[in-house]
Each structure stands twice: as structure tokens, then as C-alpha cells.
């Protein structure tokens, strides 16, 4: 926008949080500096008041009433420094957008150079610098050392050419703001850095020039909390710009296959795979087919359970649709490492049914809680049974005997037991919290953070934990979802028992079922470790270790049964997943790509 003389209008934004002692002086100094090189009608000064708790809003209103070149942009709640700037820039009239810190640490003699860098059209973004040669700021060590370290990390990790990313003295064109604003995700102190880095990646012309800078008063940056937060944001931006673009579905799938191949290669050093294959060929195909049908019957139960969980969160959906969503997400877990398919389910229910991402992720968390509780409970019940029968020593020997199925097998089993104990502790905590109708998330976070980062994290966790508590806090819902979980995993155990029977193992039915309960539970707890897609290798190793340690079944037979059991379950999952993708008109590749674009803060803010 231009004034009547065709001069580009300039909007100067002053981010203000509890600045009652300085804001009036800062506005007056800013107007005086602008009048020194701009026509009186060519600029505006905006006080971006960020949910202040003092008299700053009152003073800003008074200044705006006295001078029509001054505006007050108010926020009822804290948006964070970056959030307040974005809010004010959207409301600004100018084509040249300027901001600097209200403490006026940067000499306003440089304001004309900053504004003209953009108004001339030569640059899209301009920033002052305290670290350029010949004009380095004299900063106290407690502020200077972290600043230098941070800038070195940004230059190295994010390949930035700028020397000083956090100098609060910047300007950009309206077009540059429109180009960058939707991509800049941080809303606090890292906003400046992300703006500069993304501007360079977008090919915009960025100018950095030296400024005289003198620290004024105490910084509002917490040199422990905020520096740590900015470090995490740096890693987030590095991941988004440098790593994630290279992690295509094809690369993820190839990485998963490589991990499985490495695991198989290591296992071949102590397992005779020829004997395993021979055992698998002798398996009764009729019983294998029966096991496949039984496993397929467990899937509608998974959809039914997911329906009950979502219902407690306030969403009513059909069991058929949710069964398909579960099929697709579990198919994603088979081909993507680190359980990447879980986020796909949240994507499906969001896109197809409008269920917000926070509720989608919370429903997944609730489902995982019930799975872990059921698995830990089943394995614990068998342990109690062995203890009552005086055979607990056999279990201990099975978990400590590396001869049973090699080091990988018993290590996976031991880790699974640890996961089970942690799961039980976490579940007990959630259930007790739900029973007490209390949520101490915000008060706990407030002990270490009181800024917008802490508020944002508290908002996310409160909603997340609150949704999980809603499922665990209703006794009827808790019992119904729990009973369905037991039924689902009982069928899973039955499938393993049928597969073992297909190998003609010499075990009485009671022992067969009991050992399968333990082996399947421990095997699935081992799969919690996000190493290989679908937990391939982890499940087989843990299952085999338990089976060999507790029964006369040999390693070849036990491993053959574990491989066949896991394989038929994965085949049913893949077939159901492909069918569900066709029925729901969902592309796994598209879901992966679009899910990757959902950043956590944006998703959980909805």
C-alpha cells in the first residue's frame, strides 16, 4: 500500500508483553525516528500487545487515541512473541513490515537503513546483526556465549548464511510475509530464526547489516528453559527441511526391509534356517487355514473396540468404517518403521469423518493403553499360574538362557517384560487419575515453564490426557473396552495355539494354551520397540525364547511356528488393508505424505 504521493507505507510493529514502564517512551522514540526520513502519513506504529497482565493495554489505547498513526492490536491470551508479530502483521496496512524489540537495544539510527533495504525493492528480508565483523555487540558472557553457540548451530545444521538470527531488528516486504507466514510454525523466540532460514530456502533476497546494540535491563529469555526450547525447535526445523523430504514411502519401506534383513542375517549365525523351513513345510495346512479364519474374525472386534473408545470422546461412527481404518493403519505399521501407520489412522478419521487430530491421537493412545494392559495382564496371569504350580523357576530359566533362541530372543523377551511393567505402571497412573477427576498437567509444567511454550505444551497434554481419562474414568466403558481387548488378544493366542498344533507338537491342550498366552503376550510387548516394520524379528525372537524355555519344543519348530503365526497375521492384515483402502478410497502413499505435513502443534491446536 502507498500514500497519496506513491510512497510505500511502512508498518512498524512493537511486540509488547507487560511493558507499562517503557512502551510510551518506545512509541514516542519510534515516531520521532520515522519522521526523520518518512512523510508523516507514510507509516504506522502498531503496539502488538500480547495478553498483558499490567497497564500496557490501557497505555496503548491512550496512545492510539491521541495519534492516528498509532494502533493497538490486542490479544486476550498470550500468543508468544512470534504469534503476536504474525497477528499484528496480518492487521497491518503497510507494504513494508518492520519490527524491533521495545527495549530499543538496537540504535534507532539504523532504522532508515532497515526500512530502505526493503522499500527500495532490492531485498525481501533485512535484519540487523550484532555479530558481523567490525560491529560486534559487547554482551555479557551469560547472554553472548549462548547466542554465539546458537547461531553456529543454526549456520551448521540449517545451512544459513546469516550470522545473527535472533537480533530483534528486522523488516520484510508484504509479499515475503505472505510467502513465509504459513510455513513458519514457531510462535515464540525461534520465530525470528525460522523466518530467516525459510526465507533463504525460498530463494528470497536477505540482507544482514551490522548495527550498534546495547543490552537494556534483564532479558525475558530464560537462558535454560527458552534456550532448550529453541534447541528443540532447531532440531524440528532441521528434520523438516533436511531429513523429512528424503524419507519417502519408498525409502521407509527399503529401510524397514534392510532392518529385517540384518536381523535375519544375525539370527542365521545361531539358527539352522534349513531345519526351520523343513518344519514349516510339514505343518498341517488345514489347521493353518483354520488359524487364518480365526484371526480374521478378531478384526471386527478391533473396529467395535475403537468405536467404543471414540464414543467416549464424543464421536459416533460405524463399526465397519472404523474396522477399515484400523486395517489401513495396521497395514501402514507393516511397511513403515516406528509404527508410522498409527498417524495414518488419525488422518483417516480426520479426513473422512472430521474427527480432530487431538481426539484421533488420544483414541490411539487409549487403545494402546488397553492393549498393553491386556498383554501385561495375560502374561502376568500365566506367571501367577506357574508360580502356583511351582514351575516359576522354568520361566526364569527361559528368560535367562541364551541357548533358548539366541541372545536376540531372550533379550527381546526381557525387554518385553520391562515394557510390560512400565505399561502397567502407566495404566495404573492414568486410571487412578481418571478416578480422581483431576488433571495436574498444567501445574506440573508451570513449575518449569510459564511462557507460551509451557502453555502450548500444557494445552496439548491436558486435552490428550483428558481424552484418555474419559475412557478410563467411565466404569462401564472401561469394562466394555477392557473385555473387548481381552477377547481380541484371546483370539490372537488361539491362533498361535492352532499354528503350533499344526506343527504336531507334543503338548497337552492346557499347557499349549498357557504357554501361548505367555509367548504371544511377551512377543507383542517386544513389538513395542519401534525397530522394524510390524515388529518382524522381535516377535519371533521373544516367542521362540519363551516356547523353547518352557516346553520340550525344539528351536526349529518353535521358530517355524512363530514365523508362520506372525506371517499369516500379517497377510490377513495386508489383505484387509488393501481392501479397506479400496473401500474407503484412501491411498496409503497419500496418507503418509499428507500426515507428514501435519505438524504436532498445528494438529493438536485444532
Beta strands, count: 7
Per DSSP, what share of the residues sits in E-state strands of 2 or more residues?
Answer: 5-15%
Helix segment count? 24
General form? elongated
Mean pLDDT: 78
Largest beta sheet: strand ordering: 3-2-1-4-6-5-7
Q: Tell me which oligomeric state these chains represent.
A: single chain
Distance between the termini: 33 Å
Integer count of domains: 3
**Which structural class is indicated by helix and strand composition?**
alpha/beta
Protein name: Glycosyltransferase 2-like domain-containing protein
Membrane topology: Multi-pass membrane protein
Transmembrane segments: 251-271, 283-301, 408-432, 486-503, 509-529, 541-564
GO molecular function, one term: glycosyltransferase activity
Amino acid at each position: 500500500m502507498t500514500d497519496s504521493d506513491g510512497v510505500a507505507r511502512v508498518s512498524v510493529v512493537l511486540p509488547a508483553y507487560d511493558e507499562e514502564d517503557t512502551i510510551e517512551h518506545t512509541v514516542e522514540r519510534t515516531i520521532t525516528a520515522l519522521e526523520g526520513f518518512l512523510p508523516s502519513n507514510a507509516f504506522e506504529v502498531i503496539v502488538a500487545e500480547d495478553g498483558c497482565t499490567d497497564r500496557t493495554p490501557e497505555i496503548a489505547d491512550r496512545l492510539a487515541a491521541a495519534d492516528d498513526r498509532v494502533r493497538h492490536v490486542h490479544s486476550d491470551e498470550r500468543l508468544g512473541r512470534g504469534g503476536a508479530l504474525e497477528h499484528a502483521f496480518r492487521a497491518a496496512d503497510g507494504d513494508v513490515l518492520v519490527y524491533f524489540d521495545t527495549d530499543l537495544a538496537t540504535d534507532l539510527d539504523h532504522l532508515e537503513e532497515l526500512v530502505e533495504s526493503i522499500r527500495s525493492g532490492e531485498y525481501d528480508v533485512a535484519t540487523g546483526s550484532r555479530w558481523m565483523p567490525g560491529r560486534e555487540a559487547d554482551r555479557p558472557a551469560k547472554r553472548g556465549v549462548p547466542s554465539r553457540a546458537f547461531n553456529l548451530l543454526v549456520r551448521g545444521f540449517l545451512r544459513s548464511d546469516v550470522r545473527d538470527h535472533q537480533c530483534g531488528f528486522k523488516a520484510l516486504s508484504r509479499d515475503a510475509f505472505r510467502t513465509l507466514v504459513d510455513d513458519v510454525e514457531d510462535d515464540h523466540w525461534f520465530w525470528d530464526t525460522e523466518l530467516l532460514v525459510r526465507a533463504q530456502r525460498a530463494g528470497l533476497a536477505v540482507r544482514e547489516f551490522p548495527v550498534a546494540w546495547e543490552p537494556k535491563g534483564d532479558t525475558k529469555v530464560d537462558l535454560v528453559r527458552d534456550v532448550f526450547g529453541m534447541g528443540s525447535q532447531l532440531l524440528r526445523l532441521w528434520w523438516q527441511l533436511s531429513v523429512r523430504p528424503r524419507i519417502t514411502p519408498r525409502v521407509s519401506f527399503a529401510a524397514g526391509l534392510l532392518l529385517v534383513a540384518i536381523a535375519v542375517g544375525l539370527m542365521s549365525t545361531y539358527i539352522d534356517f534349513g531345519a526351520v523351513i523343513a518344519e514349516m513345510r510339514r505343518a498341517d495346512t488345514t489347521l493353518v487355514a483354520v488359524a487364518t479364519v480365526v484371526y480374521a474374525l478378531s478384526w471386527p472386534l478391533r473396529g467395535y473396540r475403537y468405536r467404543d473408545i471414540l464414543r467416549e470422546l464424543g464421536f459416533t461412527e460405524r463399526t465397519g468404517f472404523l474396522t477399515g481404518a484400523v486395517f489401513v493403519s495396521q497395514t501402514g505399521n507393516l511397511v513403515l518403521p516406528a509404527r508410522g501407520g498409527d498417524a495414518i489412522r488419525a488422518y483417516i478419521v480426520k479426513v473422512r469423518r472430521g474427527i480432530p487430530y487431538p481426539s484421533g491421537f488420544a483414541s490411539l493412545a487409549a487403545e494402546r493403553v488397553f492393549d498393553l494392559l491386556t498383554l501385561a495382564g495375560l502374561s502376568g496371569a500365566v506367571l501367577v499360574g506357574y508360580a502356583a504350580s511351582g514351575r516359576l523357576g522354568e520361566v526364569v530359566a527361559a528368560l535367562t538362557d541364551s541357548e533358548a533362541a539366541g541372545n536376540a530372543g531372550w533379550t527381546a523377551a526381557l525387554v518385553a517384560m520391562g515394557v510390560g511393567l512400565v505399561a502397567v505402571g502407566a495404566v495404573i497412573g492414568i486410571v487412578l487419575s481418571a478416578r480422581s477427576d483431576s488433571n495436574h498437567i498444567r501445574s506440573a509444567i508451570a513449575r518449569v515453564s510459564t511462557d507460551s511454550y509451557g502453555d502450548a505444551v500444557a494445552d496439548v497434554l491436558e486435552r490428550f490426557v483428558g481424552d484418555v481419562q474419559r475412557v478410563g474414568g467411565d466404569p462401564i466403558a472401561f469394562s466394555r473396552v477392557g473385555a473387548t481387548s481381552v477377547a481380541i488378544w484371546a483370539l490372537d493366542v488361539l491362533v498361535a495355539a492352532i499354528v503350533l498344533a499344526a506343527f504336531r507338537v507334543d503338548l497337552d491342550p492346557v499347557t499349549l494354551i498357557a504357554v501361548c498366552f505367555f509367548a504371544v503376550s511377551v512377543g507383542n510387548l517386544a513389538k513395542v520397540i519401534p525397530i522394524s516394520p510390524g515388529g518382524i524379528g522381535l516377535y519371533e525372537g521373544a516367542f521362540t525364547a519363551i516356547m523353547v524355555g518352557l516346553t520340550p519344543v525344539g528351536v526349529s519348530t518353535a521358530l517355524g511356528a512363530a514365523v508362520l503365526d506372525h506371517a499369516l497375521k500379517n497377510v490377513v492384515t495386508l489383505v484387509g488393508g488393501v481392501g479397506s483402502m479400496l473401500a474407503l478410497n484412501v491411498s496409503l502413499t497419500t496418507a503418509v505424505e499428507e500426515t507428514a505435513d501435519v505438524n504436532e502443534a498445528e494438529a493438536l491446536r485444532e
